[in-house]
């Protein structure tokens, strides 16, 4: 099916526009460093993405089949059971800023790269909405929850095809390089879903509180039904 390469993805590369950096204290020790990097690297950054349309071929209790590949996942079953198409995707912030790690703090450079990744994911969703009319786009990423482990990246890469044209490679442990890269399934009309709602772990990046009733509905109730 149709494969779309966005290289590069244009993002707002500005301290006042990037969501993660908006709350940064101007008197913090890293503020001036981040500001200097952003002001001098606009031409360097090249965030990129691949999208590929995919039919939802079969949905059975606890599993979903896409392009002949069956994924065993209660989460995918719950979220995709009434859909006909989804978008497979790989999104990366790139590694262009890594050359700065000898001059600046590596942790500061990584903060900027992570910010670029967040903004790139937002712009990819905006592109899908503008071009295809999809709204409330949510995403399912291998490894974000135990129900769909990171090993499934190997199948996503096989389905999407060669990712070297956006500078991404899959490692033996099924994680990706460059580090600030994500893969997964994008689908429409699910404004309320976010992985945090189904995750019990404590995390500094938590965006939503754990929702026990939703967790039990998706995972435990399905176990009862299967029994």
From TrEMBL:
This is AdoMet activation domain-containing protein. InterPro entries: VitB12-dep_Met_synth_activ_sf. SUPFAM superfamilies: Methionine synthase activation domain-like. It comes from Acetobacterium malicum.
């Amino acid at each position: 099916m149709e494969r779309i390469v966005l290289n590069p993805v244009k993002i707002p590369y500005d301290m006042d526009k990037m969501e993660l950096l908006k709350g940064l204290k101007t008197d913090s020790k890293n503020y001036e460093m981040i500001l200097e990097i952003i002001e001098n690297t606009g031409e360097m950054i090249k965030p990129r993405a691949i999208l590929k349309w995919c039919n939802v071929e079969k949905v059975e209790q606890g599993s979903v089949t896409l392009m002949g590949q069956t994924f065993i996942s209660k989460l995918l079953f719950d979220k995709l059971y009434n859909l006909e198409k989804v978008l497979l995707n790989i999104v990366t912030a790139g590694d262009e800023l890594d050359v700065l790690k000898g001059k600046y703090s590596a942790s500061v450079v990584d903060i900027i790269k992570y910010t670029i990744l967040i903004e790139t994911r937002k712009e990819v969703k905006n592109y899908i909405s503008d071009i295809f009319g999809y709204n409330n786009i949510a995403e399912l990423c291998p490894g974000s929850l135990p129900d769909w482990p990171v090993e499934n990246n190997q199948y996503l890469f096989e389905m999407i095809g060669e990712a070297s044209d956006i500078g991404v490679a899959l490692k033996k442990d099924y994680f990706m390089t460059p580090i600030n890269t994500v893969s997964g399934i994008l689908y429409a009309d699910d404004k309320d879903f976010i992985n945090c709602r189904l995750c019990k772990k404590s995390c500094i990046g938590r965006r939503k509180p754990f929702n026990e009733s939703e967790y039990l509905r998706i995972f435990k109730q399905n176990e009862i039904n299967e029994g």
